[in-house]
Amino acid sequence: MTTATGAARRMRAPARREQLLLVTAQLAVEQSFHAVSIEAVAQRAGVTRAVIYQHFDDLQALLEAVVDREMSQAQEQVTPTTPTDLGSGAASDILLRGLAAFLTAVRDHPRTWRLVLMPPEGAPELLGRRIARGRRTVLRQLAVAVEGGLSGSAVGDAELTAHLLSAISDEYARLVLTDPDRFSPERLLEHARWWLAQSSFGM
User: Fold this and answer.
1) What is the tens place of the pLDDT at every residue in 39-53?
2) CB 3.0-4.6 Å disulfide test: which of 47, 64, 145, 148 passes with 51?
3) No. of H helices and E strands in the chain?
């Protein structure tokens, strides 16, 4: 009879590394980064400490690899959802399509987005730097979209408008993560549609 431990021992190196990264990220989300240790990861993964050290030099290397993996995934998910040209159609429709795609990504990948939008206690400085860098990129794209697509309208300051749109999207996403039964993407999109209709985006 094959045991789970026996199956784990036969896992190929790339799959093992992926497993350890997933286990570490999930442990951080559930209990905070303070709870992450080589021993805790080994126990949850069903392996020995030696197995972890075959893939990562130390705990810091493991945490940095987790941050790289999760932030790369977040970037891949958010980049296609960020509007870049509000002048290519109805601005509100473009914004709503981007928001719908973003909220779907958040709903489907909650672990990644909890790390981005609600960093657990004890998060490494690298995580904060990567989050800040990603946010700056999104804000630049949004500002360009607002400036180019709505120039001459009543939108006002494109940079501040980009910050506002980003903040609203992030808050919607946090609601999806913390109380998905009450705040479904569909409910949030309906609210966004109403809000945009009250603004110059709905004109």
Assistant:
1) 999 999 999 999 999
2) 47
3) 10, 0
